[in-house]
Amino acid sequence: MLDVFVNYRTGDEESAATMIARELARRFGAERIFFASNSIELGHRFPVELVRAVEECEALLAVIGPRWAGVRRADGRPSLEAEQDWTRREIQTALDRGILVIPVLVGKATRIDRALLPDDLRELADCQYRRFAHRNAESDLTALGDALARLLPDLGAVDRDARAAREGAEAKSRKKSAQDVGHTRMRTRDVEQRVRGGIGNLNGDLSGTFVNEPQGPVNTGRGHQYNAPHFQGDNTGVQFTAGDNGGTVHQRFEREPRRSDDER
Questions:
Q1: Residues 90-139: tens digit of each pLDDT
Q2: DSSP 140-179
Q3: 3-state SS, residue 182
């Protein structure tokens, strides 16, 4: 089953038609795109193959350049006026069978003038068209392919570019997830190392800084730190702080109540 038939006129933008057919074949598969110079096998009768291909396709692209209506036969008559003109017959067959026909206007080609068309082709002037410019070939080919993938579901199902985009997005998502997991593990390991090394933060009910197995004098609060024993206190008691390179010890001593002269 063919999906797209690429119709063009010899002497008018064959290069554009070749580019379009080649890109569509790359994206959707050559077996789904009919382009006469590539799709008809040697020795096969082209009239039969052309008619068969048009009747089997789901869409026909009519590639139309500035000279499309002006190309003439050897006798000087416009090719478009000849009933046996194959470009005309292919489009006429597609229109008669209700096949989707998409004019592709190349370069400076203007919208088709109904007055220039034979009666059996005038419906072509009413068909919504696409533009194609050689200088914007990449973006125009992408847009044309995207439109065909949307209009023809069977073609969209084999869209290689869409599949590559999905696979790329999935790979990017997997990579991001792996990076997030790695960062979480690094943060967890960093916290564990800090706790094992002696420095950590306590949150929740226990707020502040704790010191585990210090290797020297450590002051974790306000005020001065003294490496020699230090006494401080008030009427309720004295706090003794002593430390060396092995650690710091805090001990509290309760004072005996002061006795009056009568008790001495």
A1: 999 999 999 999 999 999 988 888 998 999 999 999 999 999 999 999 99
A2: HHHHHHHHHHHH-HHHHTT-HHHHHHHHHHHHHHHHHHHH
A3: helix
Angle between helices 46-56 and 86-96 (to 10 degrees): 30
Burial class (CB in 10 A: 0-12, 13-18, 19+), 243: buried
Give 234-238 contacts, CB < 8 A, sequence gap 24+. Answer: none
Q: What pTM, to 2 d.p., does this model score?
A: 0.65
Task: Kindly report the backbone phi and psi dihedral angles of residue 22, in degrees, each rounded to the nearest multiple of 5, phi listed first.
Answer: -65, -45
Structural element, H or E, at residue 19 = helix 14-28
- Do 60 and 103 form a contact (C-beta atoms < 8 A)? no
Helix axes 137-151, 14-28, angle to 10 degrees: 50
3-state secondary structure of 123: helix
112: DSSP letter: P
User: How would you classify the pairing of strands 199-202 and 208-211?
Assistant: antiparallel
